[in-house]
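Changelog excerpt

This revision adds worked examples to the README so contributors can see how folded entries look when concatenated. The first example is reproduced verbatim below.
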Amino acid sequence: MRWILLLSLLACPLAAADETCMSPYMAKIKGQEDFVYVWTLGVEGVGDEQDKLVTVDVNPASPDYGKVVASLSVGGRNEAHHTGLTDDRRYLWASGLDTSKIFIFDVHSDPAAPTLHRTISDFVAKTGGVVGPHTSYALPGRMMISGLSNNRDHGGRTALVEYTNAGDYVATHWMPTDDDLRGAVKSGQFADGYGYDVRALPRKNLMVTSSFTGWNNYMMNLGALMADPEAMKAFGNTAVVWDLHARQPKKILDVPGAPLELRCAWGEDHDYCFTTTALTSKIWLIYADEKGEWQAEAVADIGDAEKIPLPVDISIAADDSRLWVNTWNDGMTRLYDISDPHKATQIYSKKIGDQVNMVSQSWDGKRLYYTSSLLANWDKREPTGPDLQYLKVYDYDGEQLKETLSIDFLAAKLGAPHQMRFGAYSLYGDKTASR
């Protein structure tokens, strides 16, 4: 019976997801989201200086619209980074890249006021030495977590880690390297074993991972890092194609320049995913060719690579026609026409702030949310003001962005906002609605 349920889920990938970057196994928010949950880095000298989950009411019909309605600190500064909801959307997993702690929040009992349900403090020991839990990605009854580093040399060699929704460790799946390809085919120059993001295309039995850098680099001051030639060599240059069901790496693709966020197309005949490279400032397409073989191809430049715009987060439209791309260093968001995925073309751009990192797009494409923080030792310190560390919300009418909400997280003594996830009363029935 469980296999029948699993097969039905695999056959219906479009039954899911609100933000278009979310797992296809998740229930979709239909209509207006009520809350945005912002995983926020603690900043020395700001408020309680702790990492926290900040809940903002974003429903224009609410009397609390635009207000911070809850803030839950977790103790200390863990290099708060990415989050992910379980497939049933009852729990939000949030990780720290420095301490490797994972904080699991209950967001279903009262969506307006999440509570800390469980803390996983033995991630490194349980996983056999994986450091830096990054993406928490929902699979049926499972959370797949991509690591960034390891506890032996704190370099980029790392793994995928599988947990149950309850937070119990299942398995570690090490990335393939030249020394241990783990059955994968090396299609180009690289097999570095690095990790960053993970996404799935269930109808193709595809799981794909990207690559970044290890603890030694991401915890270093950005100026010192860029001035260190050896450190700059220690960035990932690969994307790995996996057998989703078997958790088996199949093919290693060269994607030079630190490919970060992965976003897979939603269309039933769209066999491709996108990523961007932080160091070379390009959009890359990972696609199945006429023979069904997975390939990687650079399809667009992003700004002027010589000015180091540093592409970070991306968001694909639900109809696969557009791709939003943020560049952290210049604070810009750019929109690309990807109706021909092999020829991405920039059609719009807007400066969001002095720096910009994450973007979350509503399923209908009418609202976009932006936050600013990248990493504690990489974030800019000047100029202080509302455009440095913020949450900003925009309406998009198909032609341009119009700002509707902005919160200065430093002025509010909250810290540095990183990743966002949506919440809604409608997901859990009327019994939770208090309005």
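The second example, added in the same revision:
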Amino acid sequence: MDIQVEKQTLGSCCVLREAKAEQPVDCDITLPDYCGDVKSILNCSIEPYLTSGGASGSRISAQGNAVVRLVYVGENDNVVCFEQTVPLSKSVEMSGLPQDAACRISAKTDYVNCRAVNPRRVDVHGCVTVWFTVFSKEKTEVLTDSPTDGLFLKRDGFQTYDFTGCSFKLFEMSEPITVPSNQPAVRGVIHAQAVPSVKDTKAVNGKVLLRGDVRVTIGYCGEDGTIATMNHVLPLNQIAEVEGVSDKSLCDVRLSVTSIDAPFKADANGELRQAELALTLRADVFAYDPLSVNAATDAYSVSESLEISRTRAKALALCEKLDEAFAVSCSLDFSDAPAAELLDVWCDGVTSLFDEAGPAFAVCGTLSLCVLYRDGEGKPQLAHRGCDYRFQKELTAKNGCFVFDPWLCVNGCDLSVSGSGVQGRVQVNLVGVLFEKTEHDVIGELRADEAHPIAAKAALTVYYGSGGEEIWEIAKRYHTSCEAVKQRNRLSGERIESDGILIIPRN
């Protein structure tokens, strides 16, 4: 028998390949004349900034800079800053990628070591790792129907969000900024951070429109020796292309800053108050479309045995699109070097862990905080402290487990000296789309089993049924139709109501 079938393709997002490339960062910093001698080093950081990247043939490359930022104690116990830029360029070979593959490129610093060779020279050694992650659409074909006579299908209907595709786009933003007149002019930048926020998204005809803003914070050493902070907000209005996306699509959008540069220049009075703020942002967009599926879970034929190949179909049910702000209470121990005056606090990293096997929804991790302060002797110090957090919500998976990729950013720190430590709160924002995942055992392939023909059937068969037994299983066992069993025995439901004798007719 030639069996004809109809199928439906389901898509899910999968990580196809991952690769990394390490680049040593070695530089010899010789301080210019306008920087004082080094008395002690407070902090030395390497900040990798990616400004471009993409695939060309089988090669995926990334370009940018590694900014080496030195913060040290100079003359009169003032905090002094100096930075130097090192080119960053890495690539990996990935052959045989599908056409719909999309690559996300990111970079992180592995380690930094530095030492002052003399009061005017500092040696820096570190390493940056560039990560290349390739995403693709994993396709699963499920059997949904068959026009073949004498073939019966049992179906399971469910709703899911089908993965449409993803896009990772780098785009640049720039805007002139000026230090407010009531703040000191800039002598050196201690840290520069930007927090992008998407306020509105709209998907239409293969494009996702993104609207929001980017809040920039720059901590710097002032010309008068004080530590100051300036803030600036840039409007955000960008477009990301995602093939197949439409106004019905659900879009999971995350924005991250891959580079930030604010080279200050002298104004008419010779003070460093003006800069052309330049940002490179990456938009990660994952798109899903609602889909109704009526997949076959079982099948039999009245005339032939069947070979059935089963598969596991993944289904995603939307739980919630999260955009949650929460506060993390921090109590940092400074008993080894008590803080007398807090100069600046910023967050230079967030880790996150989501346990999808847990019965309730919770995200936990650690905030990495940098605390610049003066000790009891009035000397500047810089300390790195970790602050653990846990965010949970009253959500419980009903039939499956949660699927969630958390995206967190720190909106601000409100800390102050308290006794021998530093206490306060850190404002954090959590975004992402939360799904509940279930798996369905369905039929992927179906064919006639010619090696095992069905034995000749009697015109009528007497069967002793048990209450609650499914009529489908009885009909399948005797290769007849459910309707024939129901009509012959005057049954209306899908199961036998009580124990008794059934007459099984030949179809």
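Reviewer comment on example two: The chain has a mean pLDDT of 92. Residues 10-137+163-289+317-439 form one domain.
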